[in-house]
Design goal:
The structure is a homodimer of 118-residue chains.
Chain A lengths: L2 H11 L2 H10 L4 E2 H8 L3 H13 L3 E6 L2 E6 L5 H13 L4 H12 L12
Antiparallel strand pairs in A: 1-3, 2-3
Helix pairs in contact in A: 3-4, 3-6
Chain B binds a DNA duplex (30 and 30 nucleotides) through α4.
Chain lengths: 118, 118
DNA sequence: GTCATATATACTCATAAAGGAATATACCTG
DNA sequence: CAGGTATATTCCTTTATGAGTATATATGAC
């Protein structure tokens, strides 16, 4: 971990859509279509942000039949860990994050497309 | 503090020059010319990044005669606090931050232009 | 093999950000 | 007031980022 890596972590975190995705993934591993559905955003948008997060090792993915399940990496990066924790704290105060989590919980993530992702 | 603010904090942090500036200001309040000198960057570049940090309330400035003294805001933002602390931890490991601090300590910040800034 | 579904990628456009050169402003000295 | 120094701002160019449309790929069902 050096200054460049640190910068890169912040680049990953400085987009609201990506923060919203990470907020969801903090709860559970999810497939693209569920993220898309909960956030109410287009497939391309979600897919591209996931690709971005993946390319910088914040998330990892695993194929299950037609679906790609994304989860937050088990990282050895303390700064990232710390910020994900902060995100979790804020998720109980911020209206956007709260609404997302509410919609997530109202969604049956084990049904429809993905079989129990986690 | 909401999700938009959070995003904005990360935007401030996702540029290496700004991180280097914050790393220096973590040590002491400094005038523009000293930051410029220690980082070896142009006046415009430093000035613009400081303006950016100031516009988002990460730093504040105070004029002393010809000089503008910048310091990190006493903020009530826990996420920012946390990340500045992380920056400080990393500054003893990362070559860029370490070299900057070394040059800072070799600079007489109380002389030349600014009278004791802090 | 075809078809449907889930996801990824390529291409394009619009906007933002970073940097440099030149210029403007603010302050001090005399 | 003029002249010098420190800093800020404007203008311009280049590059990066985000979003949309269309298309491609991967998998499963048949």
């Amino acid at each position: 971990m050096n200054s460049e890596d640190l910068c890169q972590v912040y680049r990953c975190l400085c987009d609201l859509t990506r923060l919203r995705i990470l907020n969801l993934l903090g709860e559970d591993a999810l497939c693209v279509c569920h993220i898309q559905q909960v956030l109410g955003e287009s497939q391309v948008k979600i897919s591209k942000h996931l690709a971005y997060l993946k390319s910088h090792h914040l998330v990892e993915s695993e194929r299950r039949a037609n679906w790609m399940i994304y989860r937050i990496c088990n990282t050895a990066n303390p700064i990232l860990e710390e910020n994900l924790k902060c995100l979790q704290d804020l998720s109980s105060e911020d209206p956007v994050f709260m609404a997302d989590l509410k919609r997530l919980r109202a969604t049956d993530t084990s049904a429809a497309c993905c079989p129990t992702a986690s």
